[in-house]
Amino acid sequence: MGGVENLGLFIAAGILLNLTPGPDVLYIVTHALRRGARAGMVAALGITAGCFVHIAAAALGVSALMAASSTAFSVLKWAGAAYLVYVGVRLLTSKSTGFAIDSGAIDARSVRAKGLRAIFFQGFWTNVLNPKVALFFLAFVPQFITPGVENKAGVFLLLGLLFNLNGLWVNIGWALTAAWLARRVHAVQRGMFWLDRAAGVLFIGFGLKLALSDNPSDH
């Protein structure tokens, strides 16, 4: 790929980073355990769509401006932290119904469709409102762009697209694995109530951690 250095290392590092558990993985696994593989994969698509926003913004320089502005960083940081806490509270107060079994009823399909849309957009906003994702792309991707290349923004976008596509397959793998466990491990099905509560506590913890984080440009 023209303008790219160490492409193999970039791909390997991206896959390892996506395998690392964090708010995104937790979000995908939680929905896959509660509602099955389809919900988990929709959650993965929502997370990936949010990443595309950060990649486009970074390529255009918006993320760099945000990183340099304490006010812009703080606004996005507090919005993201509040949203993560909101997701956590929803999980803590939800009534778990266990693993969802497909039904042929039209009404059930309609309810599932609305639920899947909510899962997608919740994952999307969870990612978009996290300024650390924007800063990650600004710090990680340029290391693999050849110095002096003319169209750096274009190369950045191509690498971002590659990172996201590789990450999508990893996240789908998380969703399928979690759904498989929910179907076959009875302890997971019986413990779904406590899994929701544990996930809720973790989401709140991620939100508080984000709220207490500093803008790297201030140091």
TrEMBL record:
<dbReference type="GO" id="GO:0005886">
    <property type="term" value="C:plasma membrane"/>
</dbReference>
<keyword id="KW-1003">Cell membrane</keyword>
<dbReference type="GO" id="GO:0015171">
    <property type="term" value="F:amino acid transmembrane transporter activity"/>
</dbReference>
<protein>
    <submittedName>
        <fullName>Lysine transporter LysE</fullName>
    </submittedName>
</protein>
<feature type="transmembrane region" description="Helical">
    <location>
        <begin position="194"/>
        <end position="212"/>
    </location>
</feature>
<keyword id="KW-0472">Membrane</keyword>
<feature type="transmembrane region" description="Helical">
    <location>
        <begin position="6"/>
        <end position="29"/>
    </location>
</feature>
<keyword id="KW-1133">Transmembrane helix</keyword>
<feature type="transmembrane region" description="Helical">
    <location>
        <begin position="41"/>
        <end position="69"/>
    </location>
</feature>
<dbReference type="Pfam" id="PF01810">
    <property type="entry name" value="LysE"/>
</dbReference>
<feature type="transmembrane region" description="Helical">
    <location>
        <begin position="75"/>
        <end position="93"/>
    </location>
</feature>
<feature type="transmembrane region" description="Helical">
    <location>
        <begin position="119"/>
        <end position="141"/>
    </location>
</feature>
<dbReference type="InterPro" id="IPR001123">
    <property type="entry name" value="LeuE-type"/>
</dbReference>
<keyword id="KW-0812">Transmembrane</keyword>
<feature type="transmembrane region" description="Helical">
    <location>
        <begin position="153"/>
        <end position="182"/>
    </location>
</feature>
